[in-house]
Amino acid sequence: MTLTQPIPIVGDTSPEPFRTATVRSTPWAAAQQQLAEAATHLDLSTGQHAMLARPRRELTVSVPLRRDDGSVSVFTGYRVQHNTTRGPAKGGVRFSSHVDLDEVRALAMWMTWKCALVDVPYGGAKGGVTIDPTAYSRSELERVTRRYAHELGDFIGPDRDIPAPDIGTDEQTMAWIMDTVSAGRGATMPGAVTGKPIALGGSLGRADATSLGVTVIALRALAARGRTRGRRTAAVQGFGKVGAGAARLLAESGVDVVAVSDQFGAVHDDRGIDVPALTAHVARAGTVVGFPGAEPIDAGLLLELPVDVLAPCAVEGALHVGNAARVRAGIVVEGANGPTTPEADEILNRNGVLVVPDILANAGGVVVSYFEWAQAQQAYRWDIADVERRLRSRMDESWDSVFGGAERSGRTLRQSAMTVAVERVVDAHRLRGLYP
Ligand code: NAD
Q1: Which residues contact 295 (CB under 8 A, 6 or more apart)?
Q2: What is the CA radius of gyration of the chain?
Q3: What is the spatial distance between Cα 56 and Cα 384, in angstroms, rounded to a whole number?
Q4: Is the CB of 130 under 6 A from ligand 1?
Q5: Which end of the chain is more exposed for a tag (fewer CB within 10 A), N or C?
Q6: Which residues of 280-289 are buried (b: 16+ CB within 10 A; e: fewer)?
Q7: CA 166 / ligand 1 centre spacing (Å)
Q8: CB 103: neighbour CB atoms within 10 A?
């Protein structure tokens, strides 16, 4: 399917963007295009495709904040539940000035496929508040978080929709959401969120889970390309919860991380960056910029370095039609959600770059979120070895099914992953039937 072809949805009278996926290179258009391709591969009926193409529920809320100086600011918050057929909705909450409904919809749809691909019993959701969290005090962020959680009301909860951290939010944010939900319902509800602090029932291993998953999958991809011996190198875009952990774990696995970036800039050292030293620098300086152990480079150039693995772990659309042809990495492992536009994906595939899709590469986070939720439901704690063993095995199984499917069908890893995931959701739809 080309970028300009509309997706026909019979019987749908809703306005854009549900009726068509157009040429706009937005996350939602990209998500729709990926679904359309999977629908073709699976020979879905128009009705089946239509049910998957639109979110089940969307909520837009107003989030007023009394600032520390007494003035009032008002933000917009969203929660989109794309699908709940395989279980409660699941997905992160993003605080960023770039958050809009288009982005949240796409991220919610990707969560549906990710949960299905790694076979956790969830649907997909995502939320966000259009706010730059770096511009507000901790107590202001607490009030924004609590008001947002309050506005979501019965929309969320352990058996409905379970938030987790994403860009601009962390375990403290989850603690505030859990407390707000618990206060509203008159009972402590640890299963209401995942990615919460260990002291509140968070899972051992959750903080590193996404990064560990990225690392496990990067090593499988390297092995698939015959790169098990000799020097292996990586560049990591983004040094937040996913990128910093991935850089550390890749380095610990013997892969030299030669470049790292964040929103302020990038640093490069061909001999391999000392990641613990860089982490200590970031704790002091708030950015990778100025790290004395490496030279500064242009953040855009990081994406074009001749490395074995490029791991975009920051934002959507990092690899686009303007830079994809210059990517010299052999493998792209999508730590971020949606870092490759469909146009860039096509270019990378044409150039022989192995692109490991987000719904596989960064699924470690939701796998351990599921373990955390299961522990909360059991009121029981698993030890770290147990969590990591189960995580590794779930990632390995998922890699095997995606890579095996791609080998058999001649499809890309993304197409193979989407086919596995969408088919699982379609099967669940079929078994449950259409109410009434
Ligand atoms: P985060 O806020 O902890 O970190 C984001 C990092 O990206 C920061 O270092 C920031 O400076 C950097 N960044 C932002 N814009 C950039 C740019 N233009 N160039 C380079 N760096 C830039 O967020 P996170 O939780 O690490 O999430 C990163 C990505 O991973 C997002 O796409 C998120 O949806 C995805 N993800 C996160 C998790 C999780 O468990 N946190 C799980 C799955 C997927």
Answers
A1: 267, 268, 269
A2: 21
A3: 36
A4: no
A5: C
A6: ebbeeeebbb
A7: 7
A8: 25
126 is annotated as an active-site residue: yes
* Ligand 1 probe mutation, 110, 113, 263, most atoms within 8 A of CB: 263
φ, ψ for residue 248 (rounded to 5)? -65, -50
Nearest CA to ligand 1 atom 28: 314
Task: Using DSSP, state whether 427 is helix, strand or coil.
Answer: helix
**CB of 364 sitting under 6 A from ligand 1:** no
Backbone angles phi, psi at 26, to 5 degrees: -100, 160
Residue-wise DSSP of 243-285 = HHHHHHHHHHTTEEEEEEEETTEEEE-TT---HHHHHHHHHHH
- Joined tokens for residue 378: 């059991």
Task: List the catalytic residue out of 90, 114, 126, 241.
Answer: 126
DSSP code for 434: -
How many Å lie between the centroid of ligand 1 and the Cα of residue 285?
Answer: 18
Cite the beta strand spans of 134-176 per DSSP E: 161-165
Tell me the helix, strand and coil percentages in the chain, rounded to 5: 45, 15, 35
Residue of 80, 162, 166, 368 best suited for mutating to test ligand 1, as the one with most atoms within 8 Å of CB: 166
Q: 166 CB less than 6 Å from ligand 1? A: yes
Closest CA to 361 of 250, 230, 197: 250
Along the 436 residues of the chain, how does pLDDT read in single tens digits? Answer: 333 344 444 343 333 333 333 334 799 999 999 999 999 999 999 999 999 999 999 999 999 999 999 999 999 999 999 999 999 999 999 999 999 999 999 999 999 999 999 999 999 999 999 999 999 999 999 999 999 999 999 999 999 999 999 999 999 999 999 999 999 999 999 999 999 999 999 999 999 999 999 999 999 999 999 999 999 999 999 999 999 999 999 999 999 999 999 999 999 999 999 999 999 999 999 999 999 989 999 999 999 999 999 999 999 999 999 999 999 999 999 999 999 999 999 999 999 999 999 999 999 999 999 999 999 999 999 999 999 999 999 999 999 999 999 999 999 999 999 999 999 999 999 999 999 9
DSSP annotation string for 58-101 = EEEEEEEEE-TTS-EEEEEEEEEEEE-SSSSEEEEEEEETT--H
